[in-house]
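REVIEWER CHECKLIST
Item 1: Sequence provided? yes
Item 2: Single chain? yes
Item 3: Sequence as submitted:
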Amino acid sequence: VTRGGGRVDHVSDGVDGLVVPPGDDDALVAALARVVDDADLRQRLAAASAAAGDTFDAATAVARIEAAYG
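Item 4: Structure as written out by the authors:
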């Protein structure tokens, strides 16, 4: 993802994704190359992003809202 907008709030660079500056094509190419070339990194990012994604499903969001405002 890029550092623009709110998407970066949901990604930890090097943990569950890679963050690059907006408009920096070279940084994007380098990040993609890292993922393509490094199977361990690819597997770690995939596992961490899948686990993090569970916190953003609809049921979890509703439960958090109800707990906060219910």
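Item 5: Key structural point noted by reviewer: The chain has a mean pLDDT of 86.
Item 6: Recommendation: ____
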